[in-house]
Every structure is written in structure tokens, then in C-alpha cells.
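Database export, one record per block. Field names are fixed; values are copied verbatim from the stored entry.
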Amino acid sequence: MDKDILKSAAELRHRLHRCAELSGQEKQTKATLIDFLRTHTSLELHDMGAWFYAVYKAPLNARTESAPTRRIAFRADFDALPIEDDPALPYASENRGVAHKCGHDGHSAALCALAAEIDRHGCRSDILFLFQHAEETGCGAPVCQKMITDEKPDIIFGWHNMPGFPAGSVAVHDGTAAFASRGLVLSFFGKSSHASQPENGHNPARAISKLIIDIPELTAREDHRGIVMATVVCVRIGEEAFGTNAGFGQLMLTIRAEFESELDALDAEICARARAYARQDGITNVEVQYRDSFPETRNTPDAVAAVRKARLECGLPEAHWDEPFRSSEDFGCYTKLTSGALFYIGCGTRHAKLHTREYDFNDEIIEHAVDMMFRLAQDA
């Protein structure tokens, strides 16, 4: 990788870190990325509102009948998290309570560096550089699917930095790379009464309690093909009013599964039991709402093989893990439409964990990420 581009990419990463913005609010972030690409490349830019993409077109002499030009896409996300930054950082976030604690600043800086490398050195394939908003909420990729349907890439790649793996090591998983998940909000509308006369009301406490107790049974069925999970994230029943029998309650769960079909089945069973338990206590109105829905991210065999080949050619070590990451990624929206793979690059065995105040992206792995993507652009 050219050293001047690497230096510019690290500086860009720090600028992105300073202007960290939450999902759906990334106006300055997007403008900063576009400005970098206009300054350092001659790529064709497509501004799509909340997101954008850039296009490199292979030279005409690369387009032959015997070797038709492929279209290869790379995706980076650019939203931040509602976490306070470490003020000791020389490039600390200027937006209070918002910081890049998942490394999306590094992902986007690396993709900009790749764009500069491709623009300078060329490629025999058409390359699409997708810069996506709102990954953390799962809202970005469903919108950005338009690039897939419009530009029709043959294959798409994405990567994520991973604390706990040796810096520069590469991991890619056959099949599911990240779990499907969704937030489930169950609202029980009963009837309040005087606390001395609970028989005159419909308190949702028992229905909610039964449902919580059922979770181990629902997630540990022997016929499950993969891991299935449900985590209680919030319970609300009534108010701090000791003369009142509660008439309203909410149970909030994050459900996740290795296979999306099993997530759907778990969702349906939880909702069915919620309504059944509610009816037993005279509650007929149970509303269901969803938050932060993510599909499974399923890698395709051709893309996995390409990542493994690129790793070997780059001389990077392999990182191993035995099961898919339980966290979710909306990258799976793209692999529903075309071939693709999400892979991981280690940022250090002792590096602070993602989504913590102590975390900061490791600039040293930008070069490894660009080398991997450049190799994929040439060979995939």
C-alpha cells in the first residue's frame, strides 16, 4: 500500500472520529468522506441522500469476450454509538455522548484508502465502493440494497475489526458469519384497580413472569439446527404507586439465532404464549413492536474462498473461531441479493472490546484491510 495514501487514511479516520454521529444523523461524516474521495480520486460519485457510493470503471482494454469484466463491491459503515468518548484522545469526539466505539471510522477510512489505491493503480474489474449509514440500528443496509439492484455487482465484501484476535489476522466463517436478531417489545394492556381489590383489575405481572420463565425452554429445543437465544433487556410493570394494582406492563427481549428461520419461529412462539398467558388473566390486548431487526449474514462459498485466497497472498495469519459471532450485522441484506462475505480482521489480543468507552480503532490494521480488499478487487 502506498505510504502517502496510508497516512491520509489515518488522518481521515481521526477526522471521522472527531465528528462522530449517530445512525441516521451522519451528515458531516458523509460530507467528510465525499470530500476525501473528491480530493484524492477521480471516481464517479453517486449521492443517495443518507448514503453514497463511488464507482471505478475498468479500462476498455480490460473488457474482452474471453474475460468479461466483473463488478466487485466493497461496503463500509460510518455511523457511531451513543457512548461517551475518552477525552484524553487527541482526536476525541466533539459530539458529547457520541463516539466511534465500533470502529466504523476505521472501516470507512480503509475503504477510502482502497478507492485511492484502485484509482491510482487501476484494476481489471469494475469496483463499487458502498458507504453505508445506520448499521447499528439495522436501518441502513435495507435502503442501500438499491445499489445492488441498480449496479448488479457479481460479489460484495465487507469486513469488521475484531478485538481479541491478533492484529492483522483474518477470520472468515463458512455459512453464517453473524446472527439474525431483532428487538421484541411486548406491551400488555390490562386494567388497573385499587391495590386492595386486585380481583377488579387485570394485572400483567403473572403473564410476563410466565413468559420469562419459559425462555430457557424455548431457546434450548433439541430440534434447533443452530444456536437460538433470547435475552431480557427490560421489564416494566405498573408504576411506583402503592395503592394501585398495575394495569400495564412491557417485556422487551432481544432474540437472536444462527438461522433466520429459527428466529422467526422463536418470535412466533413467544408472541403466541404472550397472548395465551395474557388471556388467562383477562387481558385481551397485547401489542407487538419490533426494533433493530437484522437478518442473518450468510457468507457464500465463492466469496469465502476468495477471502481465504487473498489472506494467503497477503501473507496474513489466520484467526480461528468455532461458531458464528452472536452479534448481528445488516451486511446480510446484501448477501440475500448477490454473492458475498463478511470477514474479520484482528485489532489486537488485548485491545479494548467493541462498544466500550475504552475502545478506539487500531490504525495499524488499515494497511492490512486495504491490502486484503485490493487483492480481492484484483482476483475475486
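Remark 1: Residues 260-280 form the longest helix (21 residues).
Remark 2: DSSP finds nine helices and 15 strands in the chain.
End of record.
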